[in-house]
TrEMBL record:
Region (Disordered): 337-388
Name this protein carries in UniProt: IS110 family transposase
InterPro entries assigned: Transp_IS110-like_N, Transpos_IS110, Transposase_20
PANTHER family from the UniProt entry: TRANSPOSASE FOR INSERTION SEQUENCE ELEMENT IS1111A (PTHR33055), TRANSPOSASE FOR INSERTION SEQUENCE ELEMENT IS1547 (PTHR33055:SF16)
Domain Transposase IS116/IS110/IS902 C-terminal: start-end pairs: 221-306
Source organism of the structure: Streptomyces canarius
């Protein structure tokens, strides 16, 4: 196996071939960041039939060349820049830096230090992440247009417009205005333009939701079986999580989402505070699911919330407990989906201890004891997840 390390830059890439057995440099090539040069680099690398690519910062500057190599069936691992910097610091030359040394260091790290992570071709989760980001931008644009419309209608109408303003309501209100003078005529024209913009954003948001629903349905995810998780929320959970098996336990996923409380020092008793860390978009999605289940009396989440209130917890504390348990359930469901896909189509992501762990579990029960609720993963198979 020959390791080929790549040090990517915006305009050029440097590749160095390193034998992991002897740590010997077998050659290097420097190319421009173009498709023709990518092909020249691959032709150069074909002199070693058994090869693997180690790309520094494969999810950053090296993203494009990584995707290009994966599309051609090449094996690629991602090496963090901090790992190559550590290798340079510990090697001869007092940490000197140039492209060839960086590329070779990336290959050495991948082979000897175990810091490299396999990279898989982009799939539906990547597409969902793109759609989720697009939806956030569309929603922000719509909110900005509606706010501007409120300002104009406040000057044209006594009392202004209602808060829950839609394009239809705004048009009806605008039709009742008879503008007088150049200022009112300008406001009336601008308001008409903004109403058209709001309609455009509404149409794009609907199309975005349809695209999300199609991808979620195609992924055969069981997240939508959980009350409170629709196609849009499932798309955010799947897109922002990526491969769920990269989290070894449900607790690790909860920490990533910011739903795991942080223990603080106290002389009297164990105390915890709310975590402000983690992915706030995932945290917001779980909060939406929790609030929805609290308002649905037939769900286990509602029963669990009421049980926590009966224990003497405040409404906010009970919500946080429910979010924590929902994070466990979401992680187990996603891991179970990943295992099921691997059984039918083969490995589609990084495999590890989490793949063989307990991937399914019920949503929160009404039992007041936390010990009866889903906890960290155990190394035993379980049936598919049950609906909440």
């Amino acid at each position: 196996m020959m390791l080929i390390g790549i040090d990517p830059h915006k305009s050029t890439h440097t590749a160095t071939a390193v034998d992991p057995e002897t740590n010997r440099d077998h050659g290097s090539i420097r190319i421009d960041a173009t498709l023709e040069e990518y092909q020249r680099m691959l032709d150069w690398a074909r002199q070693w039939p058994d090869r693997r690519w180690a790309i520094e910062n494969a999810r950053g500057l090296g993203h494009h060349v990584t995707s290009w190599l994966l599309a051609r069936g090449e094996k690629v691992v991602d090496v963090p820049p901090s790992a190559t910097a550590r290798v340079r610091q510990l090697s001869r030359g007092a940490g000197r830096k140039n492209d060839r040394i960086d590329a070779a260091a990336a290959a050495c790290v991948a082979a000897l230090q175990g810091d490299a992570r396999p990279v898989q071709p982009e799939g539906s989760t990547n597409a969902l992440a793109l759609l989720d980001e697009r939806r956030s931008n569309l929603a922000q644009a719509r909110v900005r247009a509606v706010n501007q419309l409120h300002v104009l209608l406040r000057a044209l109408l006594p009392g202004g417009a209602p808060r829950d303003l839609s394009a239809v309501k705004a048009e009806q209100l605008l039709e009742s205005v008879v503008p007088v003078g150049p200022a009112e005529l300008t406001r009336h024209t601008l308001a008409s333009d903004l109403i058209a913009e709001v309609r455009t954003w509404d149409t794009k948001l609907k199309e975005n939701a349809k695209a999300m629903a199609a991808l979620v349905a195609g992924s055969e995810s069981r997240l939508t079986d959980t009350p409170g998780i629709g196609a849009v929320t499932a798309a955010r959970l799947l897109g922002r999580t990526g491969n769920p098996t990269r989290f070894p336990t449900a607790s690790a996923f909860a920490q990533y989402t910011g739903t795991a409380p942080i223990e603080i020092a106290s002389a009297d008793r164990a105390r915890h505070r709310l975590s402000r860390r983690g992915d706030r978009q995932l945290n917001a999605a779980l909060h939406t699911v929790a609030i929805t289940q609290i308002r649905m009396p037939g769900t286990r989440g509602h029963a669990y919330y009421q049980a926590k209130l009966a224990e003497g917890k405040t409404s906010r504390e009970a919500q946080r407990c429910l979010k924590r348990r929902l994070a466990d359930h979401v992680w187990r469901t996603m891991v179970a989906d990943e295992r099921r896909r691997e059984l039918t189509t083969g490995p589609g992501g990084q495999t590890g201890a989490a793949t063989a762990s307990s991937a399914a579990g019920p949503t929160p029960t009404a039992d007041s004891s936390d010990k009866s609720l889903p906890g960290p993963a155990r190394n035993e198979p379980t049936p598919p997840p049950q609906p909440a």
